[in-house]
Automatic annotation (TrEMBL):
Protein known as: Odorant receptor
Source organism: Dinoponera quadriceps
Gene Ontology CC terms, in alphabetical order: plasma membrane
Subcellular location: Cell membrane
Keyword check for Oxidoreductase: no
Taxonomic placement: Eukaryota, Metazoa, Ecdysozoa, Arthropoda, Hexapoda
GO molecular-function terms, A-Z: odorant binding; olfactory receptor activity
Membrane topology term: Multi-pass membrane protein
Length: 405
């Protein structure tokens, strides 16, 4: 763990900004980026304006739709057609609320990452961290592309065509909405209410999708940063016995290693604290929506509206991708935390002084007590969980198809 290259503060800040850049763009666009002393007046003002505007847009879209499903929709098919977009808005609302409520925790995680970049002294360790930060950025890009393109195409495919309705012997042409409104509260059949509600619908679609992208991207960036730190620990463990004849140096290395190990575990525990409720909402919401999207595709297959079918497929893939990312994060963090203990066991510990070698027992013992990423502290997120979600969505799709036939 020698000091071959000492990075400057600017270089450390640049690397940290790179890993968070894409997440920051989406968070700033919905006013959820954590404010710091360095935040400009424009950033503070935009957050002050965006948060109430976007919150109102989602509420104006979701609440009338909720009332429509419960009190106005007469048949099961009408309820199911509105349920998918409604669940997406409700999930997005919860994610948005979580982002706003946990800004201080997100700020602490970001500062933790900044400190980690400054603490790493060697170029090879830094390169290892950069590899994982690039993978985190890749996940963010994929999540953004799937979610934003899919949900927007879903809304556009529904609204681009006009329908004709007869109201009190008057023929009216209107744009249908993915989230129908309760007519006694907001009658969106007439102009200009129809056009205004369409604008609000697209706004709420963006906010809901962006909130989901932010949650998924932050989870990926934080988790990949933790993986990078754990892999740096692997390197340090392998090098622990290089200068075993110099007992004091080996003991100093072990002290740094143990402190850094505890620091990484604390960071992972904070990720779990921030994300466990969001993971539960995503797990349940995406499972239901994947089931509904399969139902929509089956019901529209005969007419084969290409735009609608493609939008269903893209949104289905984005939902599945989101669940997979959370499950993959849970799996890889659990595995890599446990690997620290395995690596400590596999070192040439017998070359170390007895007191130093005994210190590795603490590392092994702490690694066996794995911090797991969970969904609401109910389910451990893993690849097995992802498989269970896919199977569950298919089972419920068959039930829905039977009910609607």
């Amino acid at each position: 763990m020698g000091c071959k290259h000492v990075p400057s503060n600017d270089e450390s800040t640049e690397n940290n900004d790179y890993s968070l850049q894409l997440s920051r763009w989406f968070l700033v666009s919905i006013g959820a980026w954590p404010q710091t002393r360095k935040s400009t007046v424009l950033e503070r003002l935009s957050a002050f304006v965006l948060i109430p505007v976007f919150s109102a847009a989602v509420a104006i879209n979701a609440i009338p739709c909720l009332l429509y499903v419960f009190f106005e929709a007469k048949d099961i098919q009408s309820k199911l057609n509105a349920a998918g977009p409604l669940i997406h808005r409700l999930m997005g609302s919860f994610n948005y609320w979580t982002l706003l409520r946990r800004t201080s925790d997100m700020r602490d995680c970001i500062r933790h990452m900044e400190t980690d970049w400054r603490l790493v002294r060697r170029a090879e360790d830094r390169e290892l961290m950069i590899q994982y930060s690039k993978f985190g950025c890749f996940i963010t890009v994929m999540c953004a592309v799937f979610m934003q393109s899919g949900t927007m195409l879903f809304s556009v495919a529904k609204a681009v065509k006009t329908i004709t309705v007869v109201i009190d012997n008057q023929t009216i042409t209107m744009h249908p909405m993915t989230c129908p409104s309760y007519q006694k509260l907001i009658d969106a059949r007439f102009s200009p209410a129809n056009e205004i509600m369409l604008i609000i619908q697209f706004t709420s679609t963006y906010v809901s999708s962006a909130s989901t992208v932010c949650v998924c991207s932050l989870a990926a960036v934080f988790a990949m940063h933790a993986c990078g730190q754990l892999n740096v620990l692997y390197v340090w463990l392998n090098e622990l016995t290089e200068n075993h004849n110099e007992g004091d140096l080996a003991e100093m290395k072990l002290t740094v290693l143990v402190e850094h190990h505890l620091r990484v575990l604390g960071f992972i525990a904070r990720i779990e604290s921030i994300m466990h409720k969001v993971c539960l909402v995503e797990l349940m919401g995406c499972t239901i929506n994947m089931c509904l999207l399969g139902y929509y595709a089956l019901m529209n297959w005969a007419a084969f509206d290409a735009a609608k079918i493609i939008s269903y497929v893209i949104v289905y893939l984005s939902m599945g991708f989101n669940i997979f990312i959370f499950c993959y994060i849970g799996e890889i963090l659990t595995e890599q935390c446990r690997n620290v203990g395995d690596m400590a066991y596999m070192t040439n510990w017998y070359k170390l002084r007895r007191r130093t070698a005994l210190g590795l027992v603490l590392v092994i013992a702490r690694s066996n007590n794995v911090i797991k990423i969970t969904a609401g502290k109910l389910f451990h997120l893993s690849i097995t969980t992802f498989g269970d979600v896919i199977k569950t969505s298919v089972v419920y799709l068959n039930i829905l198809r039977t009910m609607a036939m």
